[in-house]
Each structure stands twice: as structure tokens, then as C-alpha cells.
Amino acid sequence: MDRRPSSPTSPPAPFESGRIWSSAGGAPWRQPSASSGPRSAPWAALVAAASSCPCSTSSSASTPSMIMGASASSVWYNIRVAHPTKEVPIIDYNLALLFQPMLMLGITIGVALSVVFPYWLITVLIIILFVGTSSRSFFKGILMWKEETLLKKEIEKRQQQARRAKCGEEVLLDADYTPLPSEQERSSLDILRSNISWKGILVLLTVWFSFLVLQILKTNVAVCSPTYWVINILQLPVAISVFAWEACKLYRESKERRMAGNWECVCEASIEWSVLQLLFCALCGILGGTVGGLLGSGGGFILGPLLLEIGVIPQVASATATFVMLFSSSLSVVEFYFLKRFPIPYALYLMSVSLMAGFWGQFLVRKLVVLLKRASIIVFILSSVIFASALTMGVVGIEKSIHMINNHEYMGFLSFCTE
């Protein structure tokens, strides 16, 4: 029985029997057989349920198109926004260079696992991961909310002391919490220039182009052939070399500052870059990419909470995560175009809707943060979206699993190289 994906040159098939591609690679999801029923990934099932357009015959391209549109608008908005506390880019290019290679490597692993793992197992693993991630982010948001409350009280206290000072009263300045420095007025052009690092973008584009070439080459060779495995293995030196270069840079700069008695962080993460911390970040990057490969949704659901976990403030975490997701989703879109499986009118429509949604979402959230003076709002929104996704995928996954059980469909592990 053929459970392998169809050939890249085959014409698009309906969604329920068509292959599903990862949001950062040309490697396909499994192709269900006629007797085994639909075996699409949980995330793709949600996309199919939400889409009744006739263009759904190529709906495997819809997910990366929407992610790319939302990420592009978010990045465009973010590079025109100043850093909330420092005169540095709001996108942390050091962290982007650290995580992007491992993220793309993990996506390749996730795509391979999606071929082998049964539908129900993917659903269970993703629900467990998303519930854990959203819970962790929610409690992180609560801690940030409490810290912001103390900070707001301290600011109000200092304002009252300042008003008393005008009346000749004595002012006492002995607070544990220091309010943020007032932001200097800068032009939009100055903010835009300060948020763009051409060196970091060039390195990221080099990694992006390298993976693009390898993925395109892989689509033109037989699955599990020697050439196929050689091309897959070539992704390792590309990803590891860039990660090692950035990791050594962070480790060296962090060590030099500690020896000089300077405890200022070398990047937005408020952790000391030890070997264990760097290995932890590499593991989490691969994990995030694996989830993106399993779902076809990019690694943003993992990267955002991870950046918060290592001490990155919400505004920078959001900007950096969407910046990295732009590269992974755009890689998939370009591959679809080269494979002639890209429904341009439908994809452009979805991309334009996502562009508007991403821009206005960023705009409204930023306004809400400024109005309430609480960046923890971003964390609560992130955790809510992840938790809602877990619930939705749980409902869809249970329904489809029950359907497969009633129809006595095969629900075990598949062979990666079965023809």
C-alpha cells in the first residue's frame, strides 16, 4: 500500500488526499492511501475546515502564505517602532542568528517525523506541548503584571514626591524600583535606520538561500536514495556552522564582560551565556522547528515563549520571533512557486488579508500596551492564542481519530521509505 507522498511533479490533488508541506521546507507530509482515509496534519485540518474556497485544492500553500503575510506586516511595523527602554534595534539580530539555523534544521526533522508518526500521536504531542507552553507563558505574564504594578506604584510615589517638592516639602528618594528613563524624541527615519542591521540580515539571507537550494534539489531526487540522504545531511553543516559562529560570539563577549566586572547583557536575553545555556537554546530551536514541521505552522509558537523564558522583554520577543518566522515562511512560499503548486490569486488574497490583520494587530496591541503601561498584555495574548490552538486541535483531532476508529483505519506508525 502506498503511503508515501506523491511526486512533486504530480498535479495538485484535493486537500483531503493531497500532500501537506512544511512551512519552511519542500519536504512533504504523508500522502494518505485511498483505503486509509484522510491523514493530514492537525494544523492543516484546521486550515481545511476554515477554508471553503475552490482553491483549496492547493490549500497546502495557504498556511505559509498567511504566515508570511502576517510576519511581513509585523516586521514592517516593528522596524518603525523604537525600542521601549534602550537605543538599540527592537529586533535582536544576535538571537535571530542563534535560533534561525536550528529552527530550519528542526523543521526538516519535523517533516520526517510527520511521515512516520500516526495522526493521533501528532495531535497528542502537540496538545501537550501547547498546553505546557501556554501555561508557562501565562504564569510568566502574571509575574510581569505584578512587577509592572510595583513599578507603577513607585512612579506614582515619585510623582507625588515631586509635587510636594514644589510646595517646599522634603523629598525622599529611597526606592527599590527605578522608573524607566524618558524616551527621547527621534524621527521615524532615525528609528528605521537604528532597527536595521545589514550584517545580520545578510547572514540570515545566506542561511535562507542555502536551505532553499538544498530543498529544491531534494524535490528532484527519489525519496531515500543516496542523493536524497546526502542533500539532507548537507543541511547540518549549514545550520551548525552559523549557530556555532553566533554562539561563540555570545559566549566570548559575555565572558569578557564578566571578567571586566561589566554585568550588562550582551543581547536582549538577561541570562549569562554559558555552554549549557547555548546548548539549551539549540535544543529548543530544534524543538520549535520540529513542531513547525509537524504542523506546517512555523516555529513561532515555541520561539516566542522561549525568548520570554530567557529574559527578553515582550516587545522585543514578539519582534524577533516574527522576524525569524518571516524567513521560514517565505522559504516555503518560494519553493511552492518553483514547484508550480502555488495558486497565485488565492495565495495573494490570503497574504493581503494576513498583511492587514498582522499590521492592525500589532498597531492595536502596541496602543494597548502604551495605554495600560503594561507589556505583559503581549504575554497574555500569546498564551491565550497558544491555548486556544491546543483546544481547537484537540477537538478536531479527537473527532478525526474517532472517525478513523469507526472506519477501522490504520493508526500505527508508517515507514519513511515505504513505496
From TrEMBL:
Q: How does it sit in the membrane?
A: Multi-pass membrane protein
Annotated membrane-spanning segments are 119-139, 196-217, 229-248, 278-304, 316-339, 346-365, 377-398
Question: Which GO MF terms does the UniProt record name?
Answer: aminopeptidase activity
Chief subcellular location: membrane
Per the record's keyword annotation, is DNA damage included, yes or no? no
List the GO biological process terms.
protein ubiquitination
- Does the record bear Metal-binding in its keywords? no
Give the record's family classification: Belongs to the 4-toluene sulfonate uptake permease (TSUP) (TC 2.A.102) family.
PANTHER family xref list: CEREBLON, SULFITE EXPORTER TAUE_SAFE FAMILY PROTEIN 4
Q: Which protein is depicted? A: Aminopeptidase N
Write down the species: Anthurium amnicola
Q: Which gene encodes it?
A: pepN_11
